[in-house]
Design a protein that fits this description.
Number of helices: 15
Strand content: 15-25%
Largest sheet: 6 strands, mixed
Shape: globular
Helix content: 25-40%
Number of strands: 22
Strand order of the largest sheet: 8-2-1-12-22-21
Structural class: alpha/beta
Length: 493
Amino acid sequence: MSAVRTLSNLKVAIVGAGAAGLACSCRLLSLGLAPSNLHVYEAQERIGGRIFTKRDPVKGSLIEIGAQWIHGQEENVVYTMASRNNCVAFDPSLESSGVGPNVEILDEDGSIVLPELWEKVFEIMEKIEKESYEYLKGFDGSLDQYFRRKLDECIGAGELNDLSEDLREKLFDWHHRFENVIDAADDWSQTGGWGHTEYWLCPGDPLVVWSDGYETLFRLLLEEIPADKRPSSISSLPGLHFNKPVHKIEYSPGDSMPVKLSLDDGTSQSFNSVVFTGSLGVLKANGKNIFSPALPIKKQNAIEYLDLGTVDKIFLEFEDCWWPKDLGGFGFLRSDTEKFSPDKHAKDWIRDILGFYTVRKNPNMLVGWIFGAAARSMEILPEEQVLEDCYQCLKKYLGTRYTIPRPTKIIRSTWYSNPYTRGSYSYRTVLADKNQVWAKDLAEPIVDQGGFPILMFAGEATHDHFYSTVHGAVESGWREAERLIGAIRTSNL
C-alpha cells in the first residue's frame, strides 16, 4: 500500500525558474509544502527566464532585455503586487513604445511624416482593433484578412483621402510590423482572428514600468511565504539549482514516485509531482525528446498549433545624446513591404526594424525593435555587424538632419537562439483556431489512476486569456501550485 501523500512528505520538482516557476515555488511554500521537498531546476545561471533586468553598476542604470511593461492595472496580479509596494512608475514618454506625440515617423528619404497624417491612420487602426473583439468571434481567418477588409472599407468611405496611396500603404505596413511586435508573429497572416479575441486586456495604463527593474517582481513573490520560513532572497529559495538543464522526463502513473527527471550532468531523481514551466518554444523544439512516454495527442496538438514568436531588442549606446532630449524616438517607413524571406533578405534584416526609441534612465541610448524571421537572422550575425547595420540605418533615415556618431556599445537580445527559451512570447495561430486548440489543452495535467496530478504545465502560453504576459505566467504558476495542494487535500478527505 502506497504512503498517504501529505504536505510534509510530497516531493515536488519544478522545471524552470522563470516567472511561472518562481510563482509556483513561492505559492507551494506559502501553502505548507515542506521546503526540503521542493526542488527547482534552472537550466541557466540566473533566475527570471524571459525577464532579464541588466544593470550597469557604474552608471547605476538598467535596461530590460526581456519583459518591459506591466500591461494594465485592473485585474492584473503583477500590477497589484507592484503598486501595493510602490514599485511602479508612470512615464511611458521616457520609454517609448513606438507611438506617441513625441515620436517622429520618417520616410526613407529622411522626410518627416506630418503627425496629423500618421495619427489619422493610427486612429483608424485603433478603431478597427477595438471593433475586432465582437467581429472576430468565430472568424476562421487571419488578423491580416480582417484588417485588410476593414481598411478597404475605410478607404472606400473616403476616410483616408488626405493621404497618397504610397504613404497610406507605407503607414499600413509600419502598423503591420508594430502589430507583429505586439503579437510576436512573423506575419499577421499567421495570427488567428478568432484566437486574437481570446487575449484579454487588463483595463488601465498598458505601459506601466517598474521603478527599479522588472526583477523586483521576484522579491515581491517571496512575500507570500510566512516570515519565519521566508528565504532572504529569491536566489536562496530552498532547492533552487542553477545550470541544471533537464533532458528527460519519464512518467509512470502507477509508481509511488511516478516522475523521474534526468539532468544533463548525468544525475537523476524521482518525484511525486513535477511542474514543467519551460517555454512553448522549448516544447516545440524538444518536447518529443524530453517526455517519455510521448505526451497525449491533445497536448501534442497544442504544442504544434500554438506558437512562440521572436521579438528582439537592440540597444545602442552613444557617447552623447545627439537627438532632441524631449523626443521619444524615430519610426521608420519603407517602400519594400515584401514579407521577409531569410533566403532573399538575410543580409538586409534591418529592413524590418520598427524604429529606434529612447530608453528610460539611459539618456545616451536608443533601442530598436525587430521581430520574426528578421530577428532570427539578426541573432546569428556577429555583434559588430549588427551594430554597423544599425548605424547605417540611422544615417539613412536621419543623416540629413543630424551628425550621427557611431554607437560605442551594443546590447541585443537573442531569445530564439537561446536553447532554453527558443523565442519570446506566445500567440494564437490560424491553425490553432481551425483545429480548435486552446491554451487549456497545453495546461491540462497528466494524472495517475486516482486523478492525482503527477505532471503539470505552467507558463504564459498555458494561460487562457493572459498568454504572452508576465501576469499570465505568474497566474499559471499559482494555478498549478493550488491544483497540487488541492489534490492533496482532496485525496486525504
